[in-house]
Write a structure and sequence with these properties.
The structure is a homodimer of 342-residue chains. The first copy, chain A, is α/β, with parallel strands linked by helices and 342 residues long. Chain A contains 13 helices and twelve strands. A six-stranded parallel beta sheet of chain A has the order 2-1-3-4-5-11, sandwiched between helices. In chain A, strands 7-6-8-9 form a four-stranded parallel beta sheet, with helices on both faces. In chain A, helix 2 packs across helix 3, helix 5 packs parallel to helix 13 and helix 6 runs parallel beside helix 7. Chain A binds a DNA duplex (16 and 16 nucleotides) through helix 2 and helix 4.
DNA sequence: CTGTTAGCGCATTCAA
DNA sequence: TTGAATGCGCTAACAG
């Protein structure tokens, strides 16, 4: 409604002068007109038309946050309570930098490209992008891109990514379990959509076993089913007396908490009859009884780092470490019991 | 990069013809040119410049989602895992309707107004807006607005709001507690920012007491401190043997879960020594032991309804129930024990 | 110090 | 059935 032109008219000056005031080019404006113009701007509650800005600049000051989801899944990743920490941190950082957030969930790379073009996005953050589409996206988008928790198959190119020491996390948890006498463990992987991370964690577990001269067979990697009932069946089966396993190594606190509570309900005591570990150290880990022994990570930090890296890219500043892996930490609580033999 | 003009050149037609194709005005285009133009559009991966669209239309197809936060609080509401269900549902619905999501956290109404003007937002959803600023916002924004979980002091105007049967929730939980022999209860309120809802819930509790010819004194409404340590001190104090209370009525599952786990750690058994109830029936409620007796609400549904109401407003369709209150349901689990006397 | 102007991409009206 | 012209609000280059 209130445009530069109108402000100019009302203040009795030219549009350019108003623009000069708005952009703080004070050298080109006399004190008198400055005051005059500023007061009119206040009165009129002027807000620039971002559409016109995009048109003039071919840049929108919008950062796209793309959350990937599996095509056939009805749930959004956003509905997972644990994307919230990371999202919250990003939104704040973006706002503090004077940019805007456009949030979008998808599983389709073409959609991402379209979005980026249509809105002239200043940059994008891609969360949990499946590795097969990273290349495609990078090829088709020329604005800065930062990935979060992505693994790349192509090593030719420089990807900007904020990841986690997944392998190290697996290693730490397995080493701890071994030290507690657990040599028959089973690794429970999350969604197939995040395979690369889970695989790295499992590989860390194997490393720890190898270090002790032991072998963790491939078939100790088990994919959790999507259906809760099916998962529960699986937990029970794995924790059963007839099962060889002494510990369930879950790749998320959520599943660990679910397993613990379900097993307890089924009359199986944790950790007396079976030990359970988590991954993430989110709020569940401390609320559930027994409290979860888990691998700690700082999700908010991931979001913060992603945005500050993106901002550097936008400003053409050098980025020292394109592929960052945040550290993890073993958090020992009460869900693992020392055993001698089974 | 690829504009209507370029497409037109490449296809050997005028820009208008391309626009006609894009908008499906097939009556004005011959079959031959249609095919020609469409194939060029495909090749060029045409995506409209939304900036130009905003400029031409004064409408951006962007829905603003505004999450309110307290001014001095460092945390974002988004970092609360329970805004995620509602946010996820909204994002999906907005996308399905062909609109875009702009996400913004603030505590300042002027910022909301500015955002709405600058981006020519097609509509806004305001989540947890404090009642004192609702009026101001409504006065200054002429695009459709839908509130979520807001309470209004001004009854002159029609507000569009998706709320909850807060009072009824308080009533149900209190009636249940009374039926279990609890007549000395204390209500633990959330953040001061959501006072209105908490007050309604408490008022529901009082209603239940009144119905039984009993009185629930005003000082049974206790505001939980922001600091976790302080909250824990309070839980302990309220659950102590010397305390008159037999039940802690928490206004969120989060605090209930926190109280339960902290009390158990401090050697106070729940529900044997003290009963605890929650509100929300989120994922905690079922994972914590004892499982929480709580009031169920469907957060995702809130988000969905908000968007479908907003879409009706945008399309100028009639909205039957501007101030909707979603139903609640008492969910009885294991955190309340029947008592005879204390 | 201040004003004028062209052009960004699109929709729309009018003309052919 | 197709084309040309205008304006949306702003920027930046240029002229005064």
């Amino acid at each position: 409604m209130s445009t530069i032109k109108k402000i100019a008219q009302k203040a009795g000056v030219s549009p350019t002068t108003v623009a000069n005031v708005l952009h703080g080019r004070l050298g080109r404006v006399s004190q008198g007109t400055l005051n005059k113009v500023q007061s009119v701007i206040q009165e009129e509650k002027y807000a620039p038309n971002m559409g016109a800005l995009i048109l003039a600049h071919s840049d929108s000051r919008i950062i796209g946050i793309i959350m990937f989801m599996e095509p056939r899944r009805d749930e959004t990743v956003l509905e997972d309570p644990f994307s919230s920490a990371i999202l919250g941190a990003m939104e704040r950082k973006i706002r503090e930098n004077g940019y805007f957030v456009m949030l979008h969930t998808t599983s389709d790379e073409a959609e991402v490209v379209r979005l980026s073009k249509a809105w002239k996005l200043a940059g994008l953050v891609l969360v949990w992008a499946p590795s097969n589409i990273c290349n495609i996206i990078c090829d088709s988008i020329d604005t800065p891109l930062v990935f979060i928790d992505s693994y790349f198959t192509d090593n030719q190119r420089v990807y900007y990514n904020i990841g986690l020491q997944d392998q190290r996390g697996g290693y730490e948890i397995a080493r701890y379990l071994l030290s507690m006498g657990h040599s028959r463990i089973v690794f429970l992987a999350n969604d197939p959509s995040f395979t690369a991370g889970d695989k790295a964690r499992f590989s860390g577990c194997r490393e720890a076993f190898q270090e002790q001269g032991q072998l963790l067979p491939e078939d100790c990697y088990v994919q959790l089913p999507k259906d809760r009932r099916e998962r529960e069946k699986l937990y029970l089966q794995l924790a059963d007396d007839s099962s060889p396993y002494t510990a369930l190594v879950c790749s998320s606190d959520y599943h660990a908490a679910e397993a613990v509570s379900f097993l307890q309900d089924s009359g199986i005591e944790v950790p007396r009859q079976i030990s359970v570990t988590g991954f993430d150290d989110n709020i569940f880990a401390r609320l559930v009884r027994p409290r979860l022994t888990t691998i700690h990570q700082d999700s908010g930090e991931k979001g913060k780092l992603a945005i500050s890296m993106l901002m550097k890219l936008i400003r053409n500043e050098p980025v020292s470490e394109p592929n960052r892996r945040l550290p993890i930490r073993l958090e020992i609580r009460d869900s693992v019991q020392r055993i001698v033999e089974k």
